[in-house]
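Ticket #4471: structure export looks truncated?
Reporter: QA, pipeline team
Priority: medium

Steps to reproduce: submit the single chain below to the structure queue and open the exported record.
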Amino acid sequence: MTLTVGLRGEAKMTVSCEDTARSLRSGVVEVLGTPRLIALCEEASCLAVDRHLTDAATTVGIRVRLDHLQPTPVGGSVSAEAVLRRIEGRRLTFEVSAFDDRGLVAAGKVTRVLVDEERFMSKCR
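Actual output as written to the record:
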């Protein structure tokens, strides 16, 4: 497993009715909901490192700090990018940003921790 600062991942989506704040119960407006935007940024973070992990390893999210700066309507396309900025032992910190056709939608940080998947899942049993 070789992780290096600077690894990048990108995730894209088209906003559907199921992705809105109203549908996610995080508000009443029919635009991209912040919980779905966070999930897109986490997906980009996973994509940045997943191909560099052993089969037994994965990452789990432990912290998200995100400023959701502008609305994206249903039908709009959003792209999130994550860049691995810091490696501290098993802790990985990503700088994330998301854009739609009008510009910057969100910016922040996602922190994930490397775990052995089987050992982690055994804690649920």
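Status: closed, not a bug. The export was complete when the record was re-opened. Leaving a note from the reviewer for reference: The two ends are 27 Å apart (CA to CA).
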